[in-house]
């Protein structure tokens, strides 16, 4: 084994050994031995000798310099701060596998010294999507500061803290935050995950934790919390799965006609009240139901950002590119793809400089614009966890009947794959705009962003398949 494989600093090594000791319930010297062997050394003695040689080789007589380096720049010069940390990435992947929403930040030397953290865009988006805090609605100044509860989760203990959320009057009110007692929880350069549960922000130090091991350990506070959060998620999914299995025993009659009949009827049988909310349907789980013979399924509906679009509303798009039907209705019912123009001359083009998806016409005219962040946030909001349900459908004496057949259970979409899948034509968009020939009113049922069911695994990791009929 390569003895230099992502070997951390000695200080970080000792932190990890201590963490391993608590996870496995072993003596510290045993943890040092196991960790040394994981890095390819025969023993802790050999590993420590390697560190000692590295330390002695760095001692040199340096020339006196009068050029002073800012403290954060000096921190960046440490080799460890430049290396790719597979350990942190493994922890991130494990949180994703558990379908736990999180964002991360990295404290700097200056930030820890001055008790200041930038609330970066991913953190701000996370807070807003969780309904935790919205910086865009917060005014500048200390009098508008918001204080929230926080917990700093370690292997051995859980430290109560407070989170300050504010926008200073200087520097255009750039969003800031600070967790009390963070200095004793993290080093400069550590990667810290934020998880929001019940209006409380929990911190996990991804640089000093072994989440997969701690998840299995009865001795770890981190593990206990992860198991609790996962258990809550699993309980709802198991409850919903059991209810669907009961409904799958016998066919049921549609409670309305048309494309939405299966979804409406299923939600009615599950006791879900009909509403127009964009939020998931069943205790945080989105239900997507369809007839078994349909290959495409709707991911979400999302209108363009009219402020950035050439056309300022759906009616304007209809006027430019619609067509008249025999019944007098004026429609634009079509599928838009990035691979080729449709019969109306419309197609998608991705602007890499502006980071947005643009609908354009063959003539070169720009039609509508969707910033990629808008689409990614919409996908995350709608499909953090989803049951994709399929049912057999048939008619008896003019009445439609359904029999639940199967479902696919997905969690945590891979947001970075959304735009590439649109560019590849695997995700398309349907316009469903109509002006009634009778009332002259314009209605828009979309735009609907859709994906072929066979491509779900490209957007959602580790989908779980259930055959409802045979699992009764």
From TrEMBL:
<feature type="domain" description="MvaI/BcnI restriction endonuclease">
    <location>
        <begin position="244"/>
        <end position="460"/>
    </location>
</feature>
<dbReference type="InterPro" id="IPR043004">
    <property type="entry name" value="MvaI_BcnI_cat"/>
</dbReference>
<protein>
    <recommendedName>
        <fullName>MvaI/BcnI restriction endonuclease domain-containing protein</fullName>
    </recommendedName>
</protein>
<dbReference type="Pfam" id="PF15515">
    <property type="entry name" value="MvaI_BcnI"/>
</dbReference>
<dbReference type="InterPro" id="IPR043005">
    <property type="entry name" value="MvaI_BcnI_rec"/>
</dbReference>
<dbReference type="InterPro" id="IPR029127">
    <property type="entry name" value="MvaI_BcnI"/>
</dbReference>
